[in-house]
Design brief:
Layout: H1 7-18, E1 24-27, H2 34-43, E2 48-53, H3 56-68, E3 75-79, H4 85-88, E4 93-99, H5 114-127, E5 128-138, H6 143-157, E6 164-170, E7 180-186
Parallel strand pairs: 1-2, 1-4, 2-3, 4-5
Antiparallel strand pairs: 5-7, 6-7
């Protein structure tokens, strides 16, 4: 039974819909490795996960988690910003996930920034296969997180509807600016050429 309690659970639910054994996927913000581990399980032994984080400590925690779960061989870890993804990944991917904000248990002054997140999202949409998803968990409860949310919503509202479907979800009955979810799907149809 699926229980809707956290936005992160909902994010994983949607990712499960498009990730198959053998899929290639990206974790744009590895953090403590929870999403990376989830993705590695979903893609199976024939699939692969590319995970990014600018903090060495985050990648260390992620690698430890993956080793304990015997999943490290399914993942490539990059100690660089997610805005570098198109330089490092050439193959199409089924899904890209972002869990924005700061590293839990880390320096809360070191947060994702809207400029690099938007640049990364542009690249993610190019790498995405038709029918694939970008799933973004946003944290508007701090100043940079709220700015990042506003910039992402503005960017995504301008995406061509013929090419992308965009959904924004939030938990309306929770106080204190709970996380919100932004999902972008690359559509199965292309714009028809005019005669």
């Amino acid at each position: 039974m699926f229980v809707l309690r956290k936005i992160t659970d909902l994010a994983q639910h949607y990712l499960e819909l498009v990730i198959n054994p053998g899929s290639r996927v990206i974790d744009a913000t590895a953090g403590n490795g929870y999403d990376t581990e989830f993705l590695a399980r979903q893609v199976g032994p024939q699939g692969h996960v590319y995970a990014f984080d600018i903090q060495a400590e985050a990648l260390k925690r992620t690698a430890e988690r993956l080793r304990k779960s015997n999943l490290i061989d399914r993942v490539t870890l990059y100690e660089t910003g997610h805005e570098e993804m198109s330089r490092l990944i050439e193959e199409p991917v089924s899904a890209v996930t972002y869990n924005l904000g700061y590293l839990p248990g880390g320096d809360h002054n070191l947060v994702t920034r809207n400029e690099t997140t938007i640049e990364s999202l542009n690249q993610a949409l190019e790498l995405l296969i038709t029918g694939g998803l970008v799933v973004i968990t946003m944290y508007p409860g701090h100043a940079e997180g709220n700015l990042e949310k506003q910039k992402l919503l503005s960017f995504c509202s301008k995406l061509q509807a013929i090419e992308f479907t965009v959904v924004h979800m939030n938990l309306l009955n929770l106080l204190s600016s709970p996380p919100e979810l932004l999902i972008v799907q690359k559509n199965h149809f292309k714009q028809k050429m005019k005669a």
